[in-house]
Design goal:
Elements lengths: L20 E2 L2 E2 L2 H13 L9 H40 L5 E4 L1 E6 L5 E7 L5 E7 L5 E6 L6 E7 L12 E10 L8 E2 L1 E4 L2 E5 L2 E6 L2 E4 L3 E4 L1
Antiparallel strand pairs: 1-2, 3-11, 3-15, 4-9, 5-8, 5-10, 6-7, 6-9, 12-13, 13-14
Length: about 220
């Protein structure tokens, strides 16, 4: 068995000490192997390294190598997945789409008209005003509406009647009630001209508007 006193070579590690890192740096599998060889080289001839300890450290080395290989494989899969998603997303560039959500600016005082289009008459339409994180601030529900251009007026308050600060918000519309299955509510239409990342996801550009994949309801 190697003791602190018997291990005198520079860089050697006492047997039984956890081989997890030196200082704040994590050990690689190559470092682990070098430490194991150093232990064997400088072991006390009168008290050689215990066989169980040697097998235990060899098993640790094997586990470390397997974990690093798994990590590399996961990174490779992530790269392949990202490339595949980008290729699929690029297929929509140049297409004319209809979306169910768009951004709107609020100056802190003036009511905002939230325009939307119905493909068919609907018994009612819900228009939700959302904050930057996608949380609903206000729901405006209309009565029966005819097909074509419509709009809901937002007074700049949330569902509790509290005024919100000036800034950029978004809204989405959805037909509800009888006839909703036949009526599609959209808030904008245009050609997808570009593709970019928004944090960890891909979004399209439609003019000056950013369009999320989940907000596309129709492609022409």
């Amino acid at each position: 068995m190697i003791t602190t006193q018997s291990l005198t070579a520079p860089g050697a590690t006492p047997a039984g000490a956890p081989l997890t890192g030196i200082g704040s740096a994590a050990l690689s599998k190559d470092d682990f192997l070098k430490l194991l060889i150093t232990q064997l080289r400088y072991q006390d001839p009168l008290e050689p390294l215990d066989q169980n300890q040697f097998l235990s450290q060899t098993a640790q080395f094997t586990q470390l190598e397997n974990l690093q290989n798994i990590g590399k494989q996961l990174e490779d899969l992530k790269s392949i997945s990202s490339a595949s998603s980008l290729t699929q997303a690029a297929a929509l560039l140049g297409k004319t789409v209809s979306v169910a959500r768009r951004e709107v600016s609020f100056d802190g005082a003036s009511p905002v008209a939230l325009a939307f289009t119905l493909s068919a008459p609907a018994s009612s339409v819900d228009v939700d005003v959302l904050d930057a994180q996608g949380n609903r601030l206000r729901r405006l529900t209309s009565g029966a509406l005819a097909a074509g251009q419509n709009a809901a007026a937002w007074d700049g308050r949330d569902d509790a009647g509290r005024p919100v600060v000036a800034g950029t918000y978004s809204y989405r519309a959805s037909a509800t009630g009888a006839g909703a299955a036949a009526s599609l509510a959209t808030v904008a239409q245009g050609v997808l001209t570009g593709l970019q990342t928004d944090g960890s996801r891909l979004v399209y550009r439609m003019g000056d508007t950013l369009v999320r994949t989940e907000d596309i309801v129709e492609v022409r």
